[in-house]
Design a protein that fits this description.
By secondary structure, the protein is α+β, with helices and mostly antiparallel strands. The chain is 23% helix and 8% strand. The protein is built from two helices and two strands. The protein has a two-stranded parallel ribbon with strand order 1-2. The longest helix has 13 residues. The mean pLDDT is 83.
């Protein structure tokens, strides 16, 4: 069922085909779109899942910052991690935002 690139077995809680899979090769796609679009980030997953590294989230937000013509929607079931990410300073003391 579904496309092979999205099939990765998850744990007991998520079941087969629902493991966390990163697609860094797709991150730059919005940089090439000419017309403004509405983008549902991680429509079938959660950007703030504990298996998603902060560095990957940094890259997602960098693309969002570089493409203000698009509207990005980010939903999460992990508001505590999102709050921590948005408010924690990085090693340079600059923080994500």
């Amino acid at each position: 069922m579904g496309q092979p690139r999205y099939q990765r077995d998850g744990g007991r809680a998520s079941g087969p085909g629902f493991g966390v899979t990163l697609h860094p090769e797709s991150l730059e796609e919005p940089l090439h779109w000419r017309k403004p679009r509405r983008v549902f980030v991680n429509s079938m997953s959660d950007l703030f899942h504990e298996e998603i590294p902060d560095e990957y989230i940094d890259r997602v937000f960098a693309v969002m910052a570089l493409t203000p013509q698009h509207t990005f929607q980010v939903l999460t079931k992990r508001p505590a991690r999102m709050r921590e990410y948005m408010t924690t300073l990085d090693v340079d003391g600059v923080g994500p935002f």
